[in-house]
Every structure is written in C-alpha cells, then in structure tokens.
Predict the 3D structure of the following.
Amino acid sequence: MPYDDSPPPTRRARPLTVAAALAAVCLTAAGCGGGQEADGAGADSPRPGADAASPTPAPSEPADSSSPSPSSSPSGKPLPKGPLTGRTVVIDPGHNPGNRDHTREINEQVDIGTGRKECDTTGTSTNDGYAEARFTLDVSHRLRTLLEAEGARVRLTHDADRPFGPCIDERARIGNEAKADAVVSVHADGSAVGNRGFHVILPAGVKGGGADTSKIVKSSADLGARIAGHFVRTTGSAPSNYIGGNTGLDTRNDLGGLNLSTVPKVFVECGNMRDPEDAALLTSASWRQKAAQGLADGISSYLKG
C-alpha cells in the first residue's frame, strides 16, 4: 500500500529538565497498563537490527551528496542562527534499504571492541511491508530539518546513497570523527504482537579491545532520559511494556554502534512494527513528524543543558 512521506507542519514543545524528563517517563509508565516486563520477551523476537526481509523502497528525499561546512546544511545553504549554532548532531538511520540485496556483505563479521558481530542487518518491517529502513530514513530527514532550524550542523551516517550499510563499526566511527555533541540511531523494533511502545537504548559500561564507553555512559544516559521524556510528551506513546521495566530506558553492552562510540550516543526504538497498533502509528506521516519532534526536543534539551 502507498504511504504518505510528506512532512506536515512542525511544532515545538517546551524543553524539560532531566528530572522532569524522567518524571514524565515514570508518570506515563504508571498509567500505560503494560505491567511488568516479561522475562525473555525479546529473546524470541528481533531486537535492534532484526533480520526480517523487507521490500526495497525509494528514499523519500534525495541523498546527501555534499560535505557541508559547519555553518551550512547538506544542501549548502547557510544554517540559521539559533540555540544549537555551533553544535554537531549525527543521525544514524538504522539499516539501509539496499541491505536485503547484499546479504553476503552485511553478514560479514566486524570488530565491535568486545567481540565480533554482523556488519549490519536488513531490519524489520510491518506485516504489510513497510520497511524499517524506510521508516528510519523518513524520521531522520524530519529530525534533520528540525535540528537545522535551530542552527545545528547535522550529518547522517547514510542517506540510502550507498548499496548497503554502513557497517556498525563505521556508523560509530562517523560520529566519533565528526566529534558530535550527540548521536542518535533511529530504529523500530520487530517484536511480538502485544509488545508495544518505545524504548531508548543506552550504552553500558564496556571496556575491552577497541571499546571503552567509560567517558560517555553518564552523558549518554542524560541524552537518553531527555529523549524519553520528550518522546512521551510529544507522541503520546507509552514506554515499552516489554523492555526496560516500563521506564522507556534499556542498557545494553552488545551493540557495536554504542560500544565503539567515543561521543554521547543512544539508540531509539520508536515502536514495534510487528504490533498492529504500533504499526498504525509508525506508518502515519503525522505521527512520524511527532516522533521526529520528540527526538529533536530531547536532543535540544540535552545540548542546551
């Protein structure tokens, strides 16, 4: 079925403090009726980077082909002066629409510091074929527009402008080399029906091989808490009822994109594509704009804090 990828008018939400962000998560979680997190709920269903085949869509916006200066957007146009002027944000759209045609390449193992893992995966999709890779690009484009309007220099790790990938180690390296003030990896989960809501994945304290998150654990937790609070407020979605104990926050040590990061970074699972109710939100252009706004407000609150 066709999907409307055109962005509706944007709006801004007022920033929250860290405490208010956490309070917003807890208050919303108390009323979301999700109950306790089920033991092993995610074990039989895909986590970030679920390997579920999905159709290859065309990107909703043209690919980045320029290397913008700190004061310009990807189009080369000067950025407006704003509260985020001088700040750099890297947005990492999860997966790539072309991954499904390059399974050999994306199955190659790469070093994640504490071990080895697949270069990338195809991502999941809704039951009627709306691909996670298409969702992540759409939300990332919307998020880029919102952050640039505040003066931030924004870089995407990819824009469907390469055959597959980038691999998870390269995704981390892009944020590191940009000396980003914040990196957000945009995803949607592929869990069981009935598992609903969003969650923000934070880096655990990891040190080994090429991984050392000791300097970013605290700052990433702050970034994640602010995003979670604003995401609740702006989208109306509840924190996950199957991961994170209804806090909307989950800490992991097995994601190369977090393990190898030297700058504050989080993953955001915006909802569960395999649940019909969540899928109805994720396939809505107006909801995706709210999702981008919630992410932007959380990032902005963190950078201003």
